[in-house]
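It is worth pausing here to work through a concrete case rather than discussing structure prediction in the abstract. The textbook approach is simple: state the sequence, then state the predicted structure, then interpret. We follow exactly that order.
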Amino acid sequence: MTGFLVALRDTALSVDEVIAAVSGAGVGGTAVFLGTVRDHDHDKQVAALEYSAHPSASAELERVVAEVGRSVPGVSLAAVHRVGSLQVGEIAVVVAAGAPHRHEAFAAARLLVDRVKAEVPLWKHQTFADGSQEWVGACDPPTA
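Step two, the predicted structure:
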């Protein structure tokens, strides 16, 4: 793995920073996934959204990136996730993979985003226009 960027941020995410982290002379293909805040969920209008993270989230994100890197040799990886309040249209997560060929880049990016969603303890609190609320968790917090 040549490139490596892992972060939780409470400020706007930079797609350029993530792409730069996985770029290099040997990279022939770069796959990027952007997760953005949409204006609806469950046929309800989203009025507000906030992400929160368990104290172990940064370490878990690093673990997932490292494991994906070991499973797809020669790939550069980056994963950056927002925490805090976000507006509709803002980027919540950026995941990228750079590899010698597009096949490896696509495979690594898909594996990485799927594992981040399933394993990193981040929660989304949505408030809907009708006043109802919902917590959506990627996973349960890891146990000691």
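Step three, interpretation. Residues 102-119 form the longest helix (18 residues). The CA atoms of residues 124 and 136 lie 5 Å apart.
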